Amino acid sequence: MELTADQVLHIAKLARIALTPEEVERFRNQLSSILEHFAVLSEVPTEDVEPTAYPLPLENVMRTDEVAPSLPREDVLANAPEQEDGMFRVRAVLE
Amino acid sequence: MTTVATDFETIIGLEVHVHLTTASKMFCGCSADYAGAEPNTHVCPVCLGMPGTLPVINERAIEYIVMAGLALNCEIAEYSKFDRKNYPYPDLMKGYQISQYDLPICRNGWLDVEVNGERRRVRIQRVHMEEDTAKLIHRQDPVTGERYSLIDVNRSGVPLVEIVSYPDIRSPAEAREYLVKLRQILRYIGVSRANMEEGDFRCDANISLRPRGTDVLGPKVEVKNMNSFRAVFEALSFEERRQAEVLSSGGAVVQETRGWDDERKVTVPQRTKEEASDYRYFPEPDLPPLRLSREWVERIRQRLPELPDAKRERFRTFGLSEYEAGLLSEDRARADYFERLMAALEGEPSRRAKVAANWMLGEVARWLNEREAEMEAFPVPAERLAELAMLVERGTITGQVAKKVFDEMTATGEAASAIVERAGLAQISAADELRGLVRKVIEANPKAVADYRAGKEAAVKFLIGQVMRETRGRANPQLVHELLTEELQ
């Protein structure tokens, strides 16, 4: 399956990655060959197979509604490159 | 007459997000009760999206959403799952929201709303479970002018239920009624505080207009940022007028998202991404699916309390008016108190209902209104209020005295009979005791007596009032009336 340059740019935008024209072409080729590699899966007959959302034989794994201690705030913010008033500081987010 | 009423039909669909009142968050043990907490103090590795952590479903949240679905007449899925919704905002630390896409827990419900005596059914498309996001605070550096955002993760992961209606709503008034009713039901079944001002009941609306008599759907406008029922009503009324003006002048409505400006009372276009959202939903690999057995769903159905509409109808069968039954069933605490009060009275059911309703909608409502308090804050237990009501019913005290005793009871918590005894408030029903007083009042008010004899019936009311005053409200008014008529002949 051949990806178009526009599709690569769309994926890059969703991932918030800026690509040069050369990179677009390089990733277009690489991503296309990955998709091609997995295309073999579409040859498996699946007409009689129920859609599977979860592969393990598990259902209804739940916890009782009990409060457990949260982290101390120093730990919460320990990895934050920037913080202010006990909060994570990030670049402006457009509402 | 506006053009809206004549040329166009308004089409509204509502999307409501509601916090559930669980103790812990949806997928971790952090407390979900973050109101007033310091930023980032209800946070753990799971809601921080730390590598290696796994979410685990809060069982009570699933119970609550099923309760909500049943109360909204939905089908409850036998098989349901969670999905990842991917988007780039930093309001969820994982980089995605755990939500539900194609297999929501509840679907195909409805809610009846009544506006101007007309009852209409609004269908509910789906009710699904998700997690709330972190709170973003936007700031600007006063020196450099640089804009930036701050993140408080406390709210992130709080159980959130999304309730999506079909576009069946035909007016802003109906939209408001739908929300009032939805909030009432969620509070009745006890799954949410559903307080709009505090953000645990949020509403977005889709609104479009179409020429009356057609069934095409015009471009719809999504309206956001409405923080009260009043704001929803005003924003949708504004949008209805605005779109009608655009269409009437030959223009086209632009499909867009607009925000309600509550100060200026207008909707304004919101800046949004130019391209359509691409959330890349896929099944959540960290959460096994849910299989909700019919027995389990039935057990939950059994636990549902009587809902407001059913309660109102039952109250009507006691002989109460539509208005009385409506007010008494509006709030669950009020309805429960009314029923306890009624049960503690003696006499015929219809009489007990009437007496209980009069107390609830009279003195109790007055007491609450004066304090802007909810029923839960009323200090006198129903059984004690019943004792007071029975003192009036049996003629031990007058209605006038009862009001004083009521005030005393609410202030001190003392029993009605004790107050009556201590203050000597029992009704005077002995003719000998009252006759002298009646004569005295007649002597002291020659003008009223002359008026009465000249045929002015109202004058007797004045004279009764004088006797009541002399006895501090304790005289039996019927007896006073009889004695006065006798003495005046």
Low-confidence runs of chain A (pLDDT<50, min 5 residues)?
none
Q: Count all strands of chain B and give the number.
A: 17
Number of helices of chain A: 3
Q: What order do the strands of the largest sheet of chain B run in, or round the barrel if closed?
A: 3-7-8-11-1-12-13-14-15
Low-confidence stretches of chain B: none
- What helical percentage do the residues of chain B reach? 40-55%
Q: Could you please describe the fold and organization of this structure?
A:
The complex is a heterodimer of chains A (about 100) and B (about 500). Chain A contains three helices and three strands, in the order H-H-E-H-E-E. With about 100 residues, chain A is α+β, with helices and mostly antiparallel strands. Chain A has a domain at about 5-45: Histone, subunit A, CATH 1.10.20. In chain A, strands 2-3 form a two-stranded antiparallel sheet. In chain A, strand 2 (about 85) and strand 3 (about 85-90) form a beta hairpin. The two termini of chain A are about 35 Å apart. Chain B is of the alpha+beta class and about 500 residues long. Chain B has three domains: about 5-295, no CATH class; about 305-425, no CATH class; about 430-489, Arc Repressor Mutant, subunit A, CATH 1.10.10. Helix content of chain B is about 40%, strand content about 20%. Chain B has 16 helices and 17 strands. Chain B has helices at about 5, 60-70, 170-190, 230-250, 295-305, 310-315, 320-330, 330-345, 350-370, 380-395, 400-410, 415-425, 430-445, 445-455, 460-470, 475-489; strands spanning about 10-20, 55-60, 75, 80, 85, 95-100, 105-115, 120-130, 135-140, 145-150, 160-165, 200-210, 220-225, 255-260, 265-270, 280-285, 290. Chain B has a nine-stranded mixed β-sheet. Chain B has a three-stranded antiparallel β-sheet with strand order 6-5-16, with no helix packed on it. Chain B has a two-stranded antiparallel ribbon with strand order 4-17. In chain B, strand 13, helix 4 (about 230-250) and strand 14 form a beta-alpha-beta unit. The mean pLDDT of chain B is about 90. The interface of A and B includes residues 54, 67, 71 and 76 of A.
